[in-house]
Amino acid sequence: MARQKRQACPETDALGAKLGKTIQRLRTVDKMSLGELSEISGVAKSMISQIEKNETNPSLATLSRLSQALGTSVEAFLVDAPGGDSALVQKLNTQDTPLLKSEDGLCELRIIGWIDTVQWVQWYDFTAKPNGKLESSAHPAGSVENLTVLTGKLRVTVGEERWEASAGQTLRYRADKDHAIENIGDTAAHATMVNILAHAVRPTA
Questions:
Q1: Among residues 5, 14, 8, 190, which one has the least CA distance to residue 93?
Q2: Are residues 195 and 107 in the same domain?
Q3: At 56, which CATH number?
Q4: Could you read off the pLDDT of 101-113 as tens digits, one per residue?
Q5: 88 in a domain, yes or no?
Q6: How crowded is the C-beta side of 58, counted as CA atoms within 13 Å?
Q7: Please, are residues 79 and 98 in contact by the beta-carbon 8 Å criterion?
Q8: Spatial CA neighbour of 175 closest among 153, 150, 200
């Protein structure tokens, strides 16, 4: 079912327009029709069309499926690469930082990582309201996710295993299986999340 069109917001509209154009460009470069991308990604053809036209707010799961089908990452969809000769690589204001939401609308991920490192490491600012749950699909085999809780209490589930962490604690876990982060406290939770992809992980001696 298509999502309702969001209320007007200049920053959100600009981000949505960039996202739609990027997906359309990558699809065109790959000589892939809407139907073909739909079949490969599992995302409805009508939803892809609405995303390309900036007529809907896609979920993180939808963007993840599309990015995998197009051979790229969610970060590459949304973050501009830096340029020029200045010593300053990049400066982003809050409204310029890509923001994604969980399916339940209770969790938010701000992509604070840099486009040039997304193939090795990705990092995020994560917030969750009580009972908020962020579900993520598996990353490449061997990938490790690092979650440092700043405030509140979170539970991480990977397969049949579960761990809890409170403010000041860090969980590092294999992220090459479907996994979820859930706010199990009574107040909002805030954490920093760093995902180290498989080819950047080095075995210890």
A1: 14
A2: yes
A3: 1.10.260.40
A4: 999 999 999 988 8
A5: no
A6: 30
A7: yes
A8: 200
